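Tutorial handout. Part one gives the primary structure; part two gives the three-dimensional structure as tokens.
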Amino acid sequence: MDDISKEAGCSKTTIYSYFESKEDVVNHLFFEGVSVFQEAVREEAEKSRNLKEFYNLFCTSLVAMHKEQPIYYEGVAGEAVFDKNAPPESIVNKIYTSGEVSNATIEECIKKAIAAKEISINGDVFETMTLLWFCIMGIVEKSALKESYVKFKLGKTREEFLEYAFNKLFTLLERR
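Part two.
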């Protein structure tokens, strides 16, 4: 809290008048990140003509957030905690609820793509969406950690590898 108050240019007492703890400060930042991402997902869904376009915008947004706003990314990609004993207006439940709104938007885009015969999936839409999420996050996170390896072994920049990996992942959904 000393570092937070120093960076904010105010006393710890002032910080504690707004937040219960350091964890509460972090959770509020996570909520801000999840809210920003929720709005981006909504906008991307509205302006996309098809799932491939939405998917590309989604992946690009996630990579940009990982690079430029890591605390926001952590809010989006981190553990989804829902405390059934906490009031609905608690910050952890707000984070969870906002994330679920994003998931519903993504799930709706996938369902529309199935109906339009853009893609074909075997199994549950939500399970498929969850698998995509986990794969995309893994690609984003590992490509950052292994950037020099990708350059050395594959001769690709991180951006080139991300484009390749995201396209390859999407082909698993395309109608055959």
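Part three, for discussion. The longest helix spans residues 22-47. The two ends are 55 Å apart (CA to CA).
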